[in-house]
Specification:
The complex is a heterotrimer of chains A (about 425), B (about 260) and C (about 375). Chain A has about 425 residues and is of the alpha/beta class. Chain A has 18 helices and eight strands. In chain A, the strands form two sheets. Chain A has a four-stranded parallel beta sheet, sandwiched between helices. Chain A has a four-stranded parallel beta sheet with strand order 6-5-7-8, sandwiched between helices. The longest helix of chain A has 23 residues, at about 415-435. The model of chain A is unreliable at about 1-10 (pLDDT under 50). Chain B has eight helices and ten strands. Chain B has helices at about 40-50, 85-95, 135-145, 150-155, 170-180, 185-210, 225-235, 245-260; strands spanning about 5-10, 15-25, 25-35, 60-65, 80, 100-105, 110-115, 120-125, 215, 240. A five-stranded mixed beta sheet of chain B has the order 3-2-1-4-5. In chain B, helix 3 (about 135-145) packs parallel to helix 5 (about 170-180). The model of chain B has no long low-confidence stretch (mean pLDDT about 90). Chain C has a domain at about 1-140: Rossmann fold. Chain C is built from 15 helices and eight strands. Classes of the chains: A alpha/beta (about 425), B alpha/beta (about 260), C alpha/beta (about 375). At the A-C interface, helix 8, helix 9, helix 16 and helix 17 of A face helix 3, helix 4 and helix 14 of C. The complex binds adenosine-5'-triphosphate, iron/sulfur cluster (2 copies) and magnesium ion (MG). Adenosine-5'-triphosphate binds near residues 15, 106, 134 and 135 of chain B.
């Protein structure tokens, strides 16, 4: 039976609690709304909506229902916390950083950002974190029962979620991830993961480690379908639109260990196969193949129409979609999750990242690399000088495209379009020169 | 204290220098002029302007308080006080019961919250560039070929605001250009600009905490469009006193009056 | 010479090895080095980028910015050797033993590099011949030397604490205090001193020199005109970039009575409890991880409680938070402190975004003066 549903107001008086938000946050917690959503999804299915899309929508609808209606404990995690842990304990994960992308896509970014601003978060911080905090305090996001962060990659991720745990007065756990891989550092991390699991079991009613084997198995089977999908994406022209792939990065960040990720990647794999068989490629006239680093603007933007349809450039692969870990071992779940965390190429010396990007360039026949320079992202923007030099030596053009994935105020679309256009002209002139 | 003796408040702002002359606590003269490159000369001219009006000389002035970004350049000043304190004093005197003061000048915007006793409890200032300030609106008005005085009228004729997300002058300019080329009506764009400025203020307002009565001061308070956007977003009435642009100078003069009494 | 990037890297290790080492303190980013990091990056990190030529640099896992500095220095070969110290963010048993190992590795490498045993310019995460280096370290009696250098650093830190006691009593200006702390940092990098055989020994030449320096510096300054004491405030933040902000605050008519920032307090204001017969690296690791926490740590409420105590012990009326522009750690820390202290009944916290020379800008002066006007009225 569902516990009483808390439409709790934000813990502090903040900006952004407009009438619209108040209505949405109430609706999100109503049973009938979720029932209606279920029916709508069924209808979409009947009307022949693409299978992988339905799989994704249904999965999120289910998880969000569990979280909003408190059917299962909702655990906030930062990107790169292995969510096998959360699913394995019988909870549902919620990633505020990724949810910021949803907020932007559905037009709630402004309210979320204003909320964070009124709590003193300055606009110089990465908007994925600001909007994530904002959306949680105005009640747009489900209420957390606990927060787990990993210290990896951006400082903002862990810090912002720490503040959320304070605002909601719920348990907070940090995985203090060592910087380099060694037997000792793996052990230390594995012990931490185990302690977090124990802590969660103890502190959060409704969590128990009974499902851990299942979550590990789910993760592994999804992984193998995913690898098949990656192979298909090498195909020229691309069987999948990059703008969509950049949306579905959210699955890659969010859903490992879930019962449905396998279904999703399998459907997507089959979809890509049929695209290739039928020769109906999404980018009609693929002239360039790009690799894309970091995320994208999630609000309405002309960027991708311009890139894919007008300029004929496919985003063939994304750095964030790179599969970096080995299959997990159900006999030693914590150690293998520790290994998964530690093999993230964004962590550790930059050479690890360069190696991956170099590999993507070769494997996906890439003509140019675009890094979306998210405003406030120290992690990726700090490496621009190195990345551009590395790619220059490899003979691959590189563009650092300034913008903001969530906060429209930080991006000038007109400038971005010009830059992209010029970048592709550069690639083209190079191709002409080399073909002479 | 001698009766009929005068005190002065001089606000050397980044765009406009303003002066207020008090006698027995009552305003007897005001003066303003654009701030030049030599701040001390501008201040001098402002003082002259204030006094000439009344046929007075500097000797008639008991006490002078200067404020504003050029406050230290006023030779006649007996004391300098920041705009934060001066605007709150001025606003309180111009609109009794004021609790939240929004001062938007040419270069800075400030939001000040007063406590129940009317003392400054917290304040924030915009950082960086001219994002969302008077200067920003001037550049945009020029770009659109519209007078700043028409903003209020056009705001009211607009059916909806255009979506302008940026208050950074560079980004907003390109947004405005693409709106124009998309054939969006001028009044819609104007209202969008006012909304963008108000949106920016909203964050600052909520940082210090929203409490009515909300009072606007500084030159941009005279921009009716900005006021209307802000009122709509806050769902609150925003008071703009007649002498709002002089609030800082008036506050400085009030402090001068108190200091003169203490002397 | 060794350039240190964070207060969590112990001076004791280079001192024991007889290598001059100092925390990097700069006047601002070098224009010629501006291309390596983007402009929307913390000024300290940008200033840290320079050509260190034959010197060694030790970076810590401080923050995103410093991880990138580590990459840039190596990738562009801006130093002979660049080492990385992985500082945990927590301070439990596991973290301490992990950090002890990390420090041991650093020590062996520093000794090896001095003996030219390690030639590599890049970080050797898996150094070859670690056993060989360990042998060498044992040969040199590294453990004993470390014990002594800890005692020596204790003496030096006590000396600095004395200086800041004068500051908090209003007998010395805070800007002068910073100047002295910077002087101590420089002394630790002075080859003439550090390479002296007795430098690392308590009561040795180094402590003597530093004592001379501080007593000279504190006596020669005319005591600030504090006949009527002004309003006391504390300063906190991540890296205090330069003294300009402190000078600005003092010029605005406030007394800075403590500075809880990388330099001085968090680097030079703690004492190591030296337990004989324990592994010196363990002692060091424990001491550094449990010193006054910096905003990068995750130690629950330890930092806010520490600040509250500092504030009430010194009777400050307000706190000024200096956040280097684009320092995410500082921004988030500020939010926590602003809300946390308000709940504890301390409402006056001013945020100043800082940069090199920020204290000389009109905007900052206006803010600080307005803050003083608020404090005067309560
Ligand atoms: N009637 C008006 N309508 C619209 N805008 C106006 C009007 N009068 C003045 N302004 C604007 O107000 C600004 C000047 O205001 P103010 O005198 O408060 O600035 P300031 O004090 O010099 O600047 P700051 O406080 O930033 O240093 C100018 O940018 C001007 O465009
Ligand atoms: S603020 Fe903290 S992390 Fe940053 S350099 Fe100082 S001690 Fe290191
Ligand atoms: S100021 Fe902040 S961002 Fe810069 S080095 Fe220190 S902790 Fe890192
Ligand atoms: Mg002004």
């Amino acid at each position: 039976m569902a516990k009483t549903v808390d439409t709790r107001q934000s813990p502090r008086k903040v900006a952004g609690e407009t009438r619209r938000i108040k209505i949405i946050r109430t609706l999100a917690r109503k049973k009938w709304v979720h029932n209606v959503a279920g029916l709508v999804i069924k209808r979409m299915e009947k009307r022949g909506a693409t299978e992988y899309r339905i799989a994704a929508i249904r999965a999120f609808a289910d998880d969000l229902r569990s979280a909003y209606r408190k059917e299962k404990p909702c655990i906030y995690t930062s990107a790169f916390v292995p969510n096998e842990l959360v699913y394995g304990l019988g909870g549902v994960p919620f990633l505020p950083e990724a949810a910021s992308g949803f907020a932007a896509a559905f037009g709630f970014a402004r309210e979320s950002l204003s909320a964070s601003e009124s709590l003193w978060y300055p606009p110089d911080l990465c908007s994925f974190h600001r909007a994530g905090v904002g959306a949680s305090v105005i009640g747009l996001a489900p209420q957390p029962d606990a927060v787990v962060v990993s210290s990896q990659l951006c400082d903002g991720g862990k810090r912002s979620l720490y503040q959320v745990s304070k605002a909601f007065d719920c348990p907070f756990y940090i995985l203090d991830v060592p910087y380099t891989e060694s037997p000792e550092s793996l052990d230390r991390l594995a012990r931490q993961i185990e302690e977090v699991a124990e802590g969660l079991e103890r502190e959060v009613p409704g969590l128990s480690g009974d499902h851990m084997d299942e979550a590990i198995a789910n993760s592994n089977s999804a992984r193998s379908h995913y690898l098949d999908l990656c192979d298909l994406r090498r195909y020229i022209p691309s069987p999948w639109r990059g703008r969509e792939a950049l949306n579905y990065v959210v699955m890659f960040l969010w859903s490992w260990g879930s019962p449905w990720l396998t279904r999703f990647y399998k459907a997507l794999k089959e979809h890509s196969e049929s695209i290739i068989q039928q020769g109906e490629y999404p980018v009609k006239n693929e002239r360039f193949r790009l690799a894309w680093s970091n995320l994208r603007p999630y609000y309405t933007t002309r960027l991708f129409d311009y890139l894919e349809d007008e300029l004929g450039a496919s985003i063939a692969f994304e750095e964030f979609s790179y599969m970096y870990w080995e299959p997990l071992d159900a006999n030693d779940p914590y150690l293998s999750l520790a290994k998964k965390i530690m093999s993230n190429p964004g962590w550790g010396p930059i050479e690890r990242r360069l190696e991956v990007i170099g590999k993507l360039v070769d494997e996906f026949s890439i003509d140019g690399v675009v890094q979306f320079a998210q405003w406030g992202c120290r992690q990726y923007n700090g490496a621009v000088s190195i990345l551009s030099d590395y790619l220059r030596r490899k003979g691959i053009p590189f563009l650092s495209l300034a913008g903001d994935g969530v906060d429209e105020r930080n991006s000038g679309e007109a400038q971005s379009l010009t830059r992209l256009g010029a970048f592709l002209e550069l690639i083209e002139s190079r191709d002409i020169r080399s073909s002479r | 204290m001698r009766t009929g003796s005068y005190v002065m408040g001089i606000d050397v702002g980044s765009s406009v220098t303003k002066g207020v002359l008090l006698s027995d606590g009552n305003i007897v003269s005001t003066f303003m002029l654009p701030t030049g490159t030599e701040l001390s000369i501008t201040a001098e001219e402002c003082i002259e302007g204030l006094l000439k009006d009344r046929g007075l000389t500097k000797k008639d002035v008991l006490y002078t308080v200067s404020t504003g970004y050029g406050r230290t350049q006023v030779k006649e000043a007996d004391k300098t006080v920041t705009e934060i304190t001066c605007h709150s004093r001025g606003a309180k005197a111009l609109a009794s019961g004021a609790r939240l003061i929004i001062d938007i000048g040419g270069q800075d915007s400030k939001v000040i919250r007063l406590d129940e006793d009317g003392m400054v409890a917290d304040f924030v200032m915009n950082d960086k560039c001219a994002a969302g300030t008077g200067r920003f609106l001037e550049v945009m008005a020029e770009r659109l070929g519209v007078s700043l005085f028409d903003f209020g009228r056009m705001w009211k004729t607009a059916k909806r605001p255009a979506n302008i997300s940026s208050t950074c002058t560079v980004f907003a300019e390109s947004e405005v250009i693409s709106l124009l080329s998309a054939g969006i009506a001028l009044d819609t764009i104007i209202r969008g600009l006012c909304d963008a400025v108000a949106e920016r203020l909203l964050g600052m307002i909520h940082r210090v905490g929203l409490v009515p009565r909300v009072v606007m001061t500084g030159g941009v308070s005279k921009n009716e469009g900005v006021r209307l956007s802000l009122e709509k977003k806050l769902a609150l009435k925003v008071t703009v006193p007649e002498m709002s642009q002089f609030a800082g100078a008036y506050g400085a003069a009030i402090i001068a009056n108190e200091s003169a009494v203490q002397r | 010479m060794i350039h240190l990037a964070c207060s969590y890297i112990p001076y004791e290790i280079p001192l024991a090895a007889g290598i001059p080492a100092a925390r990097g303190i700069f006047e601002g980013p070098l224009p010629s080095m501006e291309g390596y990091l983007p402009r929307d990056f913390c000024p300290y990190a940008r200033a840290f980028i320079r050509n260190y030529k034959d010197d060694t640099v030790v970076i810590a896992e401080s923050c995103d910015a410093m991880r990138r500095v580590y990459d840039v220095l190596r990738y562009w070969n801006l130093a002979r050797r660049v080492y990385f110290v992985d500082v945990p963010r927590t301070c439990n048993k596991d973290a301490v033993s992990f950090y002890a190992e990390e420090l041991k590795r650093l020590a062996f490498r520093l000794i090896g590099s001095q003996k030219s045993l390690c030639q590599e310019s890049k970080d050797l995460r898996k150094p070859q011949g670690l056993e060989e280096l360990q042998e060498l370290a044992e040969l040199q009696g590294l453990s004993e030397r470390l014990m002594l250098s800890m005692a020596t650093m204790n003496e030096i830190r006590k000396e600095v604490s004395q200086v800041f006691r004068l500051v908090s009593k209003g007998q010395l200006s805070a800007a002068k205090g910073i100047e002295i702390a910077v002087g101590v940092n420089q002394a630790l990098a002075n080859p003439g001193l550090i390479e002296e055989p007795s430098a690392f020994v308590p009561g040795g030449i180094l402590t003597q020199r530093i004592k001379e320096m501080t007593s000279k510096a504190t006596s020669e300054t005319d005591p600030p005109n504090r006949s009527k004491r002004r309003i006391p405030v504390g300063v906190t933040g991540t890296c205090l970039l330069d003294p300009s902000l402190i000078e600005c605050i003092e010029n605005a008519g406030l007394d800075v009575v403590f500075i809880d920032s990388c330099i001085p307090l968090r680097t030079l204001d703690f004492i190591i409890d030296i337990k004989e017969k324990t592994d010196p690296f363990h002692v060091l690791a424990e001491a550094y991880l449990s010193k006054v926490p910096c905003p990068r740590m995750f130690k629950g409420t330890a930092r806010i409680e520490h600040l509250y105590k500092l504030a009430s012990d010194h009777g400050v009326k307000g706190l000024i938070y200096s956040a280097p522009k684009f320092c995410d750690q500082a921004y988030y820390d500020f939010i926590e402190i602003k809300h946390g202290l308000r709940e504890m009944g301390m409402g006056y916290v001013l945020l100043l975004e800082s940069d090199y020379g920020v204290g000389r800008t009109g905007q900052v002066l206006t803010r600080v003066e307005a803050f003083r006007e608020i404090l005067e009225s309560v």
